[in-house]
Amino acid sequence: MPSSGIIAVDAAAKGMKLERYASGGALLLRRATSAKLVSASSHLLFRATVLATLALVFLFTLHYPSLLSRSFHLSAGGDASGGGAGAGAHSHRSLLMSSYGGAAWDKEIRRSARPSRDGGISVLVTGAAGFVGAHCSLALKARGDGVVGLDNFNSYYDPSLKRARQALLASRGVTVLDADINDAPLLEKLFDVAAFTHVLHLAAQAGVRYAMEAPQTYVASNVAGLVTVFEVAAKHADPQPAVVWASSSSVYGLNTDAPFSEDHRTDRPASLYAATKKAGEAIAHTYNHIYGLSITGLRFFTVYGPWGRPDMAYFFFARSIVAGEPITLFRAADGSDARRDFTYIDDVVKGCLGALDTAGKSTGSSRSGKKTGPAPLRVYNLGNTSPVPVTRMVAILEKLLGKKANKRIVTMPSNGDVPFTHANVTHAAHDFGYRPTTSLDAGLRHFVDWFVEYYKLDVKIAKGARSAADKPAKKKKAAAAMSASS
Ligand SMILES: O=C(O)[C@H]1O[C@H](OP(=O)(O)OP(=O)(O)OC[C@H]2O[C@@H](n3ccc(=O)[nH]c3=O)[C@H](O)[C@@H]2O)[C@H](O)[C@@H](O)[C@@H]1O
């Protein structure tokens, strides 16, 4: 039978194999065992790899939720390039807070928004990791107000400086969210979670001359973003907050009457930046008129100081002087030096807090869409009232840094710049006691102290540059306000 024949052949073959294998039985056994072991261990390895990958994905999701879902980090601060000691507890907490919304997120927002003093206000600060925003947030927090900040950390200038400011704020208990003012749902959510009494809206695309390079970013931030903030404040927040926001001295544009008063013409902006700020003032009128939103616009005059903006002349001039690189100075068409009403940050912060404290209530209702009566609509100059030639500003820096600048003087290009600014601050003085007290010499001294420390520069600040009156008290005050090492 063919079948038995096959069996016989199989048996014979097996017998031969058995015979062959019998001699090397031990070897075969070892081979079979090791084959099983290899197979078993590769299964194990495979499972371990899968498990490790899953664990990594889990940890990654926990730490970087924004990459996987729509979310906003709280008080990161881990990547701060300077300052920010003491941010640890908050940074750690922030890593555990994933996407916005949710019990932990809500709790953190409420904590940061809660005033610690009786009668304290609760302020949503946009642009809180910016220069003026960070200083104001710290000052509000220090006097017992609640503060929640937001900032989109864009790269217009070195974002690591913004992260360092964020870390400093975190160390003082102020949460700053990574978020954009054009994100209406987030803003609405914030008002659902915390009853902000005020919005200090400082987020903006700054810089006069950069507007020629990136016009759309000015429209997106200074017009669309402002409208988003007003929309949420007017139509969603319940009750409506009072809004104080950053306009600019640049709205005076080609105005030649000096000093600039709020009553002067502002219909001839010289740059798109100025035009967007002027547009903002017109938009403010509309939201006040229709929705009864209390709105205060602050026209800042070339604000400078520690933790300042690296895109501003005093800051990058200091850098260039230290590096021995040339600087370009613009001279007005009539040959005169350009002049600015440089205003020190601490004076501006006092003005911002004064404006918040006297803002007056909104009169509208986001529920009914109606207002009960007129609400305050204000605009104020926040300047120093004493313009200084830019050449003098450079001379002060040279003295402080102990090094001569390599100057190139050119006629001011037509790039949106204006030859001079000069503030009349009578209204701010009358309404909230605004009185700038810091000279450019004293203010630049504070700036250079911070600048040298923050960037760890090997620069000996000229002793003679420190005026006797300015020596101990003011330096201490500046350090306390926003110390680079804190
Ligand atoms: O007051 C304001 O509203 C504005 O103040 C500053 O604008 P600006 O005064 O032009 O400040 P800088 O860019 O720091 O320029 C200061 C002075 O240095 C001069 N400058 C600037 C750059 C340069 O390379 N060379 C130079 O001589 C300018 O002509 C100006 O007179 C801010 O950058 C704006 O964001 C702000 O809104």
From TrEMBL:
The keyword Transmembrane helix applies. Residues 123-358 form the NAD-dependent epimerase/dehydratase domain. One of its GO terms (molecular function) is UDP-glucuronate 4-epimerase activity. Its EC number is 5.1.3.6. The keyword Transit peptide does not apply. It is found in: Golgi apparatus, Golgi stack membrane. It is a multi-pass membrane protein. It holds the Pfam family Epimerase. The chain crosses the membrane at residues 44-64. Keywords: Isomerase, Membrane, NAD, Transmembrane, Transmembrane helix. GO terms for cellular component: Golgi cisterna membrane. InterPro entries: Epimerase_deHydtase, NAD(P)-bd_dom_sf. It catalyses: UDP-alpha-D-glucuronate = UDP-alpha-D-galacturonate. It comes from the Eukaryota. Residues 466-486 are annotated as: Disordered. Its main location: Golgi. It is an enzyme of class 5 (isomerase). Belongs to the NAD(P)-dependent epimerase/dehydratase family. This is UDP-glucuronate 4-epimerase. It comes from Paspalum notatum var. saurae. The lineage of its organism: Eukaryota, Viridiplantae, Streptophyta, Embryophyta, Tracheophyta.
